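Lecture 7 notes: from sequence to structure.

We start with a single chain of 380 residues. Read the sequence below before looking at the structure.
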Amino acid sequence: MSSTAIPEKRRTALDALHRSLGATMTDFAGWDMPLRYGSERDEHLAVRTKAGLFDLSHMGEITVTGPDAARLLNYALVGNIASVGLGRARYTMICRADGGILDDLIVYRLADDEAASSDYMVVANASNAQVVLDALVERSEGFDAVVRDDRDAYALLAVQGPESPGILKSLTDADLDGLKYYAGLPGTVAGVPALIARTGYTGEDGFELFVSPADAEKLWAALTEAGASVGLIPCGLSCRDTLRLEAGMPLYGHELSTELTPFDAGLGRVVKFEKDGDFVGRTALEAAAERAASQPPRVLVGLVAEGRRVPRAGYPVVADGQVIGEVTSGAPSPTLGRPIAMAYVDAAHSAPGTAGVGVDIRGSHEPYEVVALPFYKREK
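Now the structure, written as tokens:
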């Protein structure tokens, strides 16, 4: 008789704190993470109207340094990383040679020194961090650059929502007013050294704070205290999912996969053919771009329910008795008050307002309205 050992779930530096707050924990990509602390709807609406505090320490940080760091990232990723300014960040993807998406990423350009060496931080999804790390190491051969696994070097906290700038300003003298969206700067928050990034996955203004795991509890406590008077509450992964869904943001494993190219996902804009040199997947992606321009494959659209039944990933989208697509993500929308979904549908049925579209929910064809993404866009 043989038994296979079940790998122990990883825990963030804030694990004990989450449990003390009564969080419902869940396994996510091998990590034990807070799903919710109380009401998912209350957490969602707090981020939309006030502020929410998240532990995102499961994300995968990979540092790339050296004289050829920019050239390596230009070769390994589809974006033009060499053009990212100091202190700025860029959304991009890493693809296979056949154009399939391995992961979507945010790359931060952190520093330069006199030796013409650059430092970049690549942030991968938790479920793909090892895959991205392995691919970058493999693709670094022949480049004067070092790829370093820094997943254990960082805890990542996020404060998101309209009250987040005021909360953070009360704890730091860093120039938050001058910090643009998709930019980051080193600073001190509540006495804790941090990389302060104006990024997020909620559709709201907010910040992500990369700190030492040893400082995570101190920073969480300071943010909690600073935000108490304006309604900040701790938030779990469940509301993070409904927030990103309302904002039309793709999730790897749902809207993105190795079966799709960035052009299939409607994100061809992240592929920069004009950059210098070759990059992994260029030939396949050029062909994918031509296909998308001449005969679009299925198109990612939004669906809003006319009824109350919630669609889930994998449910067929139907019209005139035929399957025309598939739901990739679905949930009740606290902001709209109705179930919503993202789905890939045949191009002929992708225009907003297309009539006769439904979702097959356990044999019942429920009517849905086709809408343009995102479902929700904050007022700036």
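The CA atoms of residues 43 and 272 lie 37 Å apart. Keep this in mind for problem set 3.
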